[in-house]
């Protein structure tokens, strides 16, 4: 008897929130950075991206999307890669202590 591997079904994302995003129309390099970017330039770029995110009406939806995928690169919902990893761990700990499924 052969075993069939089943992938965990993730809900299809709703992209409607992106229509209201403050970053809509901005240069993607601001949020994802160019190859070979040095740390001082990255810090400046991330501050600019986060300033846009701070004013965004769909920041929470953006962050929830990035955490549920997980998006590995860029600034999403006002958090960079390292900050999202920390937030993901925090949410998983909180969910585990509450006995519910993680991240979402």
Automatic annotation (TrEMBL):
Report domain 4Fe-4S Wbl-type positions. Answer: 22-86
Q: Name one GO biological process term.
A: negative regulation of DNA-templated transcription
Q: Which cofactor does it need?
A: [4Fe-4S] cluster
Principal location class: cytoplasm
Q: Which PROSITE patterns match?
A: 4FE4S_WBL (PS51674)
Q: Reproduce the UniProt comment on modification after translation.
A: The Fe-S cluster can be nitrosylated by nitric oxide (NO). Upon Fe-S cluster removal intramolecular disulfide bonds are formed.
In the record, which residues are listed under signal peptide? none
* Pfam families noted in UniProt: Whib
What is a single molecular function from GO for this protein? DNA binding
Cofactor descriptive note: Binds 1 [4Fe-4S] cluster per subunit. Following nitrosylation of the [4Fe-4S] cluster binds 1 [4Fe-8(NO)] cluster per subunit.
Region feature Disordered, mapped onto this chain: 76-104
Family of this protein? Belongs to the WhiB family.
Q: What role does this protein play?
A: Acts as a transcriptional regulator. Probably redox-responsive. The apo- but not holo-form probably binds DNA.
* Protein name as annotated: Transcriptional regulator WhiB
């Amino acid at each position: 008897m052969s075993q069939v591997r089943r992938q965990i079904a993730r809900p299809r994302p709703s992209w409607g929130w992106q229509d209201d995003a403050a970053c809509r129309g901005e240069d993607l390099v601001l949020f994802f950075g160019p190859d070979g970017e040095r740390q001082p330039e990255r810090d400046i770029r991330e501050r600019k991206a986060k300033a846009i995110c701070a004013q965004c009406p769909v920041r929470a939806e953006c962050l929830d999307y990035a955490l549920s995928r997980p998006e590995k690169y860029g600034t999403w919902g006002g958090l960079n890669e390292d900050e999202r990893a920390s937030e993901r761990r925090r949410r998983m700990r909180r969910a585990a202590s509450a006995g519910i499924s993680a991240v979402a």
